[in-house]
Amino acid sequence: MQGVIITGFAFWSVYRFEDGPFRCYKYMQGYNANSNVQSMCESVLRNLIANSTLEEVLRNREYLRNSIKNELKEQLKGWGVWLETVEITEVTISSSRLFKDLQAEFRQEAQLKAQNIELSSK
Q1: How far is it between the farthest Cα atoms of the chain?
Q2: Cβ–Cβ under 8 Å, residues 14 and 81
Q3: Are 8 and 87 in contact (CB under 8 A)?
Q4: Residue 93: C-alpha distances to residues 5, 55, 56, 100, 119 (Å)
Q5: Per-position pLDDT tens, the chain of length 122
Q6: Contact yes or no for 71/44 (Cβ under 8 A)
Q7: Percentage helix, strand, coil, to 5, in the chain?
Q8: Which residue(s) pair with 13 in the sheet?
């Protein structure tokens, strides 16, 4: 809803312990495993973004990464999948209106500074 695009990746493998290989075979047979894991990551990330402030999303990638990883580990373990890591490579503001709103304070400060310099030079 905010016009933010997050790009990243997740590395996973078959959970080697207990009945992990059997579960992975059972739940992923005939399906694209990467697509399933990707869908889970996207769902968790959407929920996390919806419940976070815009500043947290833009500035705190480690918080996002750790939250996604912690939430997904148990869910994917049930599928026989071990989540190795989740990385967020890019956070982009795709809404031009949101981008302008975020820059408003900076632009106002720059304009005031320029006006003060102009007044002091007269």
Answers
A1: 80
A2: yes
A3: yes
A4: 6, 12, 13, 10, 36
A5: 457 778 888 888 888 888 878 887 777 776 777 788 888 888 888 888 777 777 777 778 788 888 888 888 888 877 888 888 888 887 777 666 665 666 667 777 777 888 888 888 76
A6: yes
A7: 60, 20, 20
A8: 82
User: What count of Cα atoms within 13 Å lies in the side-chain half-sphere of residue 42?
Assistant: 8
Residue 95 is encoded by which pair of tokens?
Answer: 């809404």
Structure-block tokens of residue 109: 């400060």
- The pair of structure tokens assigned to 74 is 């148990």
* Full set of structural domains in the chain with CATH: 4-94 (3.30.479.30)
